[in-house]
Amino acid sequence: MRRPRLICAVAALLAAVGLVVLPPPGGAGQASAAGGGEDSAVTVTGRKGRYDDFSKLKVTVHQTRNLRAQGIRITWTGGRPTSSTNFEHNYLQIMQCWGDKASGPEREQCQFGGSEIHAVGGQFSGSNLVGMPAGSSEYDPKEKKYTYDDVQGAGWVPFRPVRGKPTTTPTDQTYFTKFTTNEQPYDRTGADGTGDAVFEAQTGVESPHLGCGEAMKGKAARPKARACWLVIVPRGEHEPGGGRGSDGRLQTSPLSASNWAQRMTVKLEFLPIGRYCPIGQAERPTLGSEMVSDAMTSWQPALCTSGRVTYGYQQSGDGFARGQVANPLPGSPGLAFTSAPVTAPEGAKPVVHAPVAVSGLGVAFFIEDPEGALVRRLRLNPRLIAKLLTSSYQRDVPDGLTQPHMKGNPESLVTDAEFVKLNPKFKNWSPSSFPQGLIMPQGDADSYRLLWQWLQSDREAREFLGGKKDPWGTKLNPFFKELRLDHDSAVNTFPKADPSKANATPPPDPVTYGVIDLRPYVNSLHDGALHARKGDSGQRNVWDANSTPPKFTGSLQPPGKRFQLALVDAASAARYGLPTAQLKNGAGQWVAPTPAALLKGVAAMKPGAVRDVLELDPARTAEGAYPLTEIAYAAASTGLSAKARKDYANLVRYAVGHGQVPGIGPGLLPPGYAPLPQRLRRQALSAAARLQAGVADAGNSGGASGGTTAGASGGSGSTGGGSGSTAGGSAGGASPKGGQSAPPPNGGGKSPGPDGVTRAGASTPQQALGAVRWVLLAVLVLGGAGALLGPLLMRRGALEAVGAALRRWR
């Protein structure tokens, strides 16, 4: 009996030490110490031009340091009101540029001219064409460099990348396209002279041709990260020659010499990207829930520079992650992030669960009202979300306005009487301005199952999913009826079951598109947030026969008329500056995923089948609680080696210690998370102590409960993508009777990705954040019929942010 007592004593001692170093909850003061956010705001003032006076215009960029791939809020005062949503006069044009000179960038260094927006603005106002014929209303007398040529036509400003050759034609898409550029050619000023916009900042990962955040050449041991620039070009009521523009609107480019002379520049300092973890130090892979993605990739820089261990992180489906811990093979990650417990197989070492992050699932929106102003508040009840998830609006089905099975249903959300009742602002909304569906991710996740369970807990939504019409006559898309979404508690994907097709080209040999072309999946919740920020639903239903090879393409929604909804995690919404809809909780209250509402959601949770893992009942009537709150747990087996257990225990200790200090910067808890309550921090430290000592979870009971199965599919690649592969094993019974539902119908199009796969362009933030990227090293082939593919040994090289060395922890 002496050895077990000794182990328990060691565990108790480790827990006690952990409690001593546990910091208090982080507050606003602590967050500001990171040097990002509002404390780095910069305001610049315009100047008086020859024809337009911008001297009263003041533009504030609300964050200029510690930047990653994110949204930056920009506000301004003292402008003249934009004439209309067609952007004829008086607006701002904003772009991101590189440039190593202290004086700022040259116009050839700016990412501009790729938006291909033609519905608003002038003929050249969103382009890089600057040299016009003398005598024309667009002629700029100060444009001496890129002049008009009788042979070549209009002069144009080539883009010169940080590395490589300049573009060779005005339409050269070597470096950026309408889908990848972050330029904002039309930002509106309101009637009171103020404006508000969010700009998508891009690092050298998203835009290598800008190189923002890349290490500068030099002899320093820790090279300086390349800064970039935000350039704002105000537009007034006059062209460079003094006229008001042909067709009553400005036609010239902001890159034209006279317009460029009015530019306002703000330096942007990015978190470093690229390698910063010491080469050769110990490496510990982790994987799992997207809910911990932003937090983990923020913690990684501090962990690897202060703890002498490089912690990899691979985003994957929760079920696949649990399977890696429950049924590991050589090379499997030793720690998984999941919201449901891992049940070890009979005879295996128990699994320890430690809470590390609190966040939530939500619906983000980017909506511009008929006047072009941003909509700030939106309410969605469970039944409305059920309609969006089941393609029950005509506009979400190919040729839905003429499809017999969609007859009688509203065209879109904005023409749904139930939506207008909850959101009176939309009473007189133009039917032509509607959301291009609800952007939703492929694959499966615990958070997706939580959403379906919330809908099933609401009587109105449950009855609608079961086939009952709402009071206004809207009915469920009949192709979803057979999926039993009203009571299948295991469903954790978003099926696209409508098989309808429409012609993209006319007969006799039409090219058709389906629902997945009209309303395609995105790779992840983070990816959904980024698409929403751009106003890009991903809709690709226009056939481009001139492409090589021919393909479906589409266009972005025009500025001033954008309307997009997306399923997101709260951290991604905060990251890209997207507001989230208020949802109706069990108490009948409208709540958004604020830190306070998330913590009330945690307080309403109760222990599940495994006592140390809390479960949320969406139907509970907890005052102020957000109904889609989720806790991410770090789960690891006590059967790991002693060194691995110690390293993973240290990860948990950091996560619930300094990792709970809210702020922007390496090692901090990013916006979109709520700091763990003290009781959960104590629980996590106790779990870390038991893990290091090899002692079982105090509340770990045998037997599997729903939601703990490993799932049938898995696989992974680096954060940027990879192909899936099958993984054997189940933590709690074979799918679909365990925690994973059978593959749903998807309308005959592309199927949702397997639960373990993060596809190319997927969401794990590829920012200056520090994701230690694990690339696919090997697939273990197991003998026997079926040749089961083993788990992937993942390496994530090269973190993307250098964290300031934090105090060393043990």
UniProtKB/TrEMBL annotation:
Keyword vocabulary terms for this entry: Membrane, Signal, Transmembrane, Transmembrane helix
Ranges in a coiled coil: none
Classification via SUPFAM superfamilies: Periplasmic binding protein-like II
Biased composition (Gly residues): 700-736
TM stretches of this protein: 774-794
Region (Disordered): 696-764
Key word Transmembrane helix present: yes
Residues making up the signal peptide according to the UniProt record: 1-33
UniProt protein name: PBP domain-containing protein
